[in-house]
From TrEMBL:
Location(s), subcellular: Cytoplasm
Superkingdom in the source lineage: Bacteria
Rubisco accumulation factor 1 alpha-helical domain boundaries: 84-189
Segments forming domain Rubisco accumulation factor 1 C-terminal: 203-342
PANTHER family given in the database record: RUBISCO ACCUMULATION FACTOR 1 (PTHR35299:SF6)
High-level lineage: Bacteria, Bacillati, Cyanobacteriota, Adonisia, Adonisia turfae
Assembly, per entry: Homodimer. Forms an RbcL(8)-Raf1(8) complex. Forms complexes of many stoichiometries with RbcL with and without RbcS. RbcX and Raf1 can bind simultaneously to RbcL.
Coiled coil found in the keyword field: no
UniProt entry tagged with the keyword Cytoplasm: yes
Protein name: RuBisCO accumulation factor 1
GO cellular component: cytoplasm
One GO term of the biological process aspect: carbon fixation
């Protein structure tokens, strides 16, 4: 059946809805009709109300239809293709996880073995896992039958219950294609050693509980002294999402700081480094360390309890406190000055055995 383009008329849309409602054609036609209707702007729920095809069914046949299209063009024998065209949507849907080449081989294998969709799900998983291997296991080939047989061989080795183990061996022998694969599986009939399956490790999950657990990334201007033009040229940062993802263009530097409330409430935070003794009222200080200055460029309203950045006569930045409104442009308020963590012996903390339990 020929389906109309996405910009189809209302008459074409009604024809497709009628086709689905009456279930005219085969499942491939239905998949194409659902896809065309969705591309034309109809929601899955609207299609369901007009045709009776539930959204989950629409998705299943459309995905199966994509798999079907990938095995056309001579990759599969005509009798096999006719079989899956008539009643193969459930099985083809399970093959969505395979590559195009693996799908063609799997379709032929499924047809030859007469497998139903439940069995196809296990086959598809076995083929996918087998495709991850760089080298073929001893005795096994890359034939789909050997790939499935290898899966049962592995399950059988991990099973201690003799009855269950025998069933798995029988399944492996059923699907084994090569003599080598059959021989490897038959060895399990006399070798009763159980190879314990390795359990997957626990995921290293950590839930953020407090604001201080989240480093707040701030644009870094550079080292003091600097000009007001350089300070104002840094673009405003726009964190996105629950984790505050920051997108950067160019060679902008960034620095992480703890998620303190004063930082989180800043609307346009920016940071730069400054020697401690160049801070206001610290000219006579003997402290020889560099501190991190955080400034909110959005806060430009004067108050007598804060320090502000201003531009002096030469265009250089200066940090000033004013007891009265200075009547000059304020470039931002200093919100926090961060001193580095004090470590008495950096080499000491690098030794794992020195860390307290």
């Amino acid at each position: 059946m020929t389906t109309p383009a996405p910009n189809s008329s209302s008459a074409d849309t009604e024809a497709l809805i009628l086709q689905l409602r009456r279930k005219q054609g085969n499942w491939v036609d239905w998949a194409m009709a659902c896809q065309t209707l969705q591309k034309s702007g109809m929601s899955p729920q609207a299609i369901f109300e007009g045709t009776g095809f539930e959204p989950i069914q629409q998705n299943q046949i459309m995905v199966a239809g994509q798999v079907y299209q990938s095995i056309l063009g001579g990759a599969v024998a005509e009798p096999v293709l006719e079989h899956f065209t008539a009643r193969g949507s459930d099985s083809l849907y399970e093959l969505r996880i395979l590559s195009k080449d693996d799908r063609a081989q799997a379709v032929q294998f499924i047809y030859d073995q007469g497998l139903d969709s439940e069995q196809v799900r296990d086959v598809a998983k076995a083929l996918k896992e087998f495709s991850y291997r760089h080298d073929l296991p001893p005795g096994f080939t890359n034939h789909p039958g050997d790939a499935v047989a290898f899966s049962y061989w592995g399950f059988a080795r991990q099973t201690s219950d003799l009855q269950a183990r025998s069933r798995l061996i029988a399944q492996g022998l059923r699907f084994a294609h090569s003599a080598g694969a059959r021989e490897a599986i038959e060895k399990l009939l006399t070798d009763f050693a159980v190879v314990k399956a390795k359990t997957a490790p626990r995921l290293p999950l950590f839930r953020i509980e407090t604001d201080t657990d989240v480093p707040f990334v701030v644009p870094m201007v550079g080292q003091w002294p600097m000009s007001a033009d350089v300070f104002q040229a840094v673009p405003k940062m726009e964190p996105e999402g629950a984790f505050g993802v920051v997108k950067s263009a160019g060679e902008q530097a960034w620095v992480p700081v703890p998620g303190w409330q004063v930082v989180l409430t800043a609307q346009d935070a920016i940071a730069f480094l400054m020697p401690f003794n160049e801070l206001p009222n610290q000219a006579d200080s003997t402290v020889s360390e560099t501190v991190l200055i955080l400034v909110d460029r959005q806060q430009q309203a004067w108050d007598d309890s804060s320090y502000f950045l201003v531009s002096d006569d030469s265009g250089q930045l200066a940090i000033r406190w004013f007891d009265t409104d200075p009547g000059m442009p304020l470039l931002g308020r200093v919100i926090v000055i961060v001193r580095p963590k004090k470590v008495l012996d950096e080499a000491y903390t690098q030794e794992l055995w020195q860390i307290d339990e």
